[in-house]
Amino acid sequence: MNPTPKFPDGFLWGTATAAHQIEGSPLADGAGPSIWTRFAHTPGMTVNGDTGDIACDHYRRWKDDVALMRELGMQAYRFSVSWSRVLPEGVGRINQKGLDFYSRLVDELLANGIEPLLTLYHWDLPAALDDRGGWLNRDCADWFAEYGSVLYRALDGRVKKWVTLNEPWVITDGGYLHGALAPGHRSKYEAPIASHNLMRAHGAAVQAYRAIGAHQIGLVVNIEPKYPASDLADDAAAVARAHAYMNEQYLHPALLGRYPGELQEVFGHAWPEWPVGDFDLIRQPLDFVGINYYTRSVTRAAETYPLNAEAVRQDDALYTETGWEVFPQGLTDTLLWFKRTYGDLPVYVTENGAAFPDPERVENGVVHDPLRVEYLRSHLRAVHAAIEAGVDVRGYMLWSLMDNMEWSLGYSKRFGIVHVDYDTLERTPKDSARFYSRVVSSHGAALAGGDGDAEGTTRTILALPGQ
Ligand code: BGC
Q: Cβ of 300: how many Cβ atoms within 10 Å?
């Protein structure tokens, strides 16, 4: 039996989603297209040709979804705004109906006692701005600050926690280097430019917030800790490259005002000389950092593009349906590393969760998802361990409230604690939703034990060798 964990007073428990993954109706009420509407409608870009046209139909079912969160006892909800609903051309003309959607959502959350955490950008750039070069155009910093300002003016005060970008690494690695995500470019030369401009846009949006807003703003990054596959010096160097590329590339400039040296080595002559003044814009005081954690990677040197490093599969580990090793200790290590490297800034875990092969159909109103329950339990304990070790973790936003469009993997992977039937769009809380609900209502005390309750069998499942 594990001792009862104590989480700090005010620790915020919630779930997370993103606009394009749940809303559907992407062109309703005067919205402009985004790069994700275009990308998903291009043959071959998503599994089964899935698009976000319907998704979870949250754009029309938002009220029921808020009611569901309340039923589950959620205290917070992290969601993102679709830029091209609010500004169909990305800048200039405001589409009031688009803005009203988010205003109503925020009001409904507050009326139900749920604190909104608003992400300005979760990957759905207005197509009109992509036509002007998107994140490759230095003007994107002004565009993003303008967009942010529209929302700050409309919602600050009702929204007290703001996020500029979600996971700049994924935006760049998927969208500009490997092409698996919108806008689907594959260029080693573009990737550093897109990254740098994303960070300039982040800085400009924070600056704009300080002029208009009176609450808190931060940046959300995905961190995947790297562990060496051996004692070989080559593997240690591979770890340093992978770590710099994935974990430090964004936090270093945002918090320290410089890039890690290894990026020059990774990108070679594709790594430009940056105007020194850019770092003054990028490095803005932040109120918090959001960390998304899913997995780790055990890394070794290999001839791969462009990192010359690869992940080594662990024989005795459990892997999720997206091929990610379940490694809760990595979350503790990540939070400790953050504090060691960047100091005492407050941290939220802004995403954490897993796709496992759930039953496709709901039987008798229930969905048993024991692996997800155990994933959550072990990762929440890992968060608790970091808090005990002195990291200022202020909250946990589980990914995800409900099954949704997993980007280019379409609807083939389910991350939700609420099951969505994609034919009827009916929502059914899974066992993991009931479990998380108990964790929240007990302020973490329900994480104690784990061997004797309804989900206890999963401990045995997790102990089994990888699938
Ligand atoms: C993203 C989510 C995504 C999740 C699972 C994160 O990288 O922010 O949008 O669905 O991971 O892949």
A: 19
Write the burial class of residue 110 (CB in 10 Å: 0-12 exposed, 13-18 middle, 19+ buried): middle
The atom number, within ligand 1, closest to the CA of 353 reads 5
Mutate which of 399, 400, 414 for ligand 1 pocket (most atoms within 8 A of beta carbon): 399
C-alpha 435/C-alpha 433 separation (Å) is: 5
Nearest atom in ligand 1 to the alpha carbon of residue 18 is 9
Query: Cα separations (Å) of 221 from 224, 279, 288, 303, 370?
Result: 10, 18, 11, 27, 28
Nearest-CA residue for ligand 1 atom 5 is 406
Q: What is the three-class DSSP state of 428?
A: strand
Q: Please tell me the distance from the alpha carbon of residue 351 to that of residue 220, in angstroms, as a whole number.
A: 9
DSSP three-state, residue 385: helix
Catalytic residue among 108, 167, 321, 325: 167
Please tell me the distance from the alpha carbon of residue 409 to that of residue 386, in angstroms, as a whole number.
32
Give 10-residue mean pLDDT values along the chain (467 residues): 88 99 98 98 98 98 99 99 99 98 99 99 99 98 99 99 99 98 98 98 99 98 98 98 98 98 98 97 99 98 98 97 98 98 98 94 96 98 98 99 98 98 97 98 91 42 37
Q: What single DSSP character describes residue 254?
A: I
Query: Whole-model pTM?
Result: 0.96
Angle between helix axes 96-111 and 58-71 (nearest 10 degrees) is 10
E strands, 176-237, are: 216-222, 226-228
> How far apart (Å, rounded) are the C-alpha atoms in residues 275 and 298?
35
Domains of the chain: 12-456 (3.20.20.80)
Residue 297 bridge partners (DSSP): 226
Other beta carbons less than 10 A from residue 162's beta carbon: 25
Active site residue 108: no
Query: Which residues pair with residue 219 across a beta bridge?
Result: 289
Specify whether 262 is catalytic. Answer: no
Is 352 near ligand 1, meaning CB less than 6 Å away?
Answer: no
Question: Does 408 sit in the ligand 1 pocket, CB within 6 Å?
Answer: no
